[in-house]
Amino acid sequence: MQEMEAKYEEAEKKIKDIIKNNELKKDHIFLTRLARIRLYYLTLWKHINFLDNKMDKQSLKKIQIIVFFQCFSQELYKERYPNMLLEYNLKFVVIALIHFNFWGWEKEEGILLEFIKNNISSNILNTNDDNKHVWFLLELYLKFKNETILGVNENLNLKVKENLINNDMKANMIPNDLEIYEKVFKNLKAENIDGLINGMIIYHSEMLKNLGEYGEFRDYVYGFYPIEILYLIHIRKKLGLSVPEKFDDFLMNTPEAKMEFKEKELYPEMDELVEEIDKFYRRNYPEYIPNKHGELFK
After folding, report:
1. Is 34 left (phi over 0), alpha (psi -120 to 50) or beta?
2. Cα–Cα distance measured from residue 223 to residue 204, given in angstroms and rounded to the nearest whole number
3. Taking Cα atoms as reference points, which of 30, 112, 29 lies closest to residue 64?
4. Tell me: the pLDDT tens digits for 209-229?
5. Interhelix angle 57-75/29-46, nearest 10 degrees
6. What is the rounded CA–CA span in Å between residue 178 and residue 101?
7. Dihedral through CA 104, CA 243, CA 49, CA 227, nearest 10?
8. How far apart are CA 139 and CA 30, in angstroms?
9. Partner of 139 for a Cys bridge, out of 101, 156, 282, 297, CB 3.0 to 4.6 A?
10. Sign of the dihedral defined by the CA atoms of residues 29, 30, 33, 34, in that order
11. Angle (CA) 127 128 133, round 5°
12. List of residues 6+ apart from 25 with CB closer than 8 A
């Protein structure tokens, strides 16, 4: 945690220097500094959840907000620096979208969905992603909200893969088969899918055994956070369908899995540095998407 605090302070100094001098030729540095700020809150979230055994919703909220601003900051450099490495990925963006829906943040949810739709095959959203649960989450969201991407809300992974190939972009990582998640889609509105939910738990838990190696659920960011299962349960509750009453396994009893959200979650206090970056972009770039939407996360 001390190391992350030191990196946060380093980012703070750089950000404030650029803002003070209004250095437009250096403002792309904000992209890497936003990533450091996100990592700081991720570390804080893990620290509080596991070491203090508390449920830290505030840090989790700030992580999702930072991802939102990473997306729209990156968009400003879409043409100026077309080959710039991204400091976020499809998984982070989809998980932010899912949380906004969880928390009832409709305004920001709609803006982020448009970003995904508009950039599904662009240089600022790498959709060549092999995480099956990410494709499951995004398609599940589209079905629930009666939305589409590329005109579909079914077999989304295959449609995006086709679209990337047609645009001469890499698509080799996108899975052809979502396995357990395809079975869930086929039975999404069945009266009882406890067995399928258990199958999702088993799949996630098996992947988690090789934590730290490359692969699905094997990173320390969301490995212990079964967001794909929690969101499915959330949707089934909304639809008035049955869900398991309790879980006895390890995965569904982690501090992350036990977090409870209200129908309409309050916005957290905005991180000062993120707020200053947002103000800088609003002042200097009329085309900056948040300028079109007034106050956000308020």
Report:
1. alpha
2. 8
3. 112
4. 888 888 899 888 889 999 999
5. 160
6. 23
7. -60
8. 31
9. 156
10. negative
11. 75
12. none
- Closest alpha carbon to 101 in 91, 110, 88: 110
Which structure tokens are listed for 292?
Answer: 């079109």
Both tokens assigned to 162: 């086709």
Query: How many residues in the chain?
Result: 298
Residue in the block written with tokens 């001390």: 2
What's the longest Cα–Cα distance across the chain?
61
* Cβ neighbour number for residue 224 with a 10 Å cutoff: 19
Contacts 24+ apart (CB under 8 A), 238-246: 238/144, 239/189, 241/189, 241/190, 241/191, 242/191, 242/192, 242/194, 243/194, 243/197, 244/194, 244/197
CA distances from 131 to 126, 200, 287 (A): 12, 14, 32
| Among candidate residues 32, 22, 41, the one with its CA nearest the CA of residue 87 | 32
Q: Sign of the CA dihedral 171, 175, 181, 185?
A: positive
The three state secondary structure string of 160-206 is HHHHHHHCCCCCCCCCCCCCHHHHHHHCCCCCCCHHHHHHHHHHHHH
Residue 74 near residue 95, CB atoms below 8 Å: no
Cβ-proximal residues to 240 (8 Å cutoff; 6+ apart), any chain = none
Which residue, 184, 176, 143, 144, is CA-closest to 160? Answer: 176
Match 């995006």 to its residue by tokens. 160
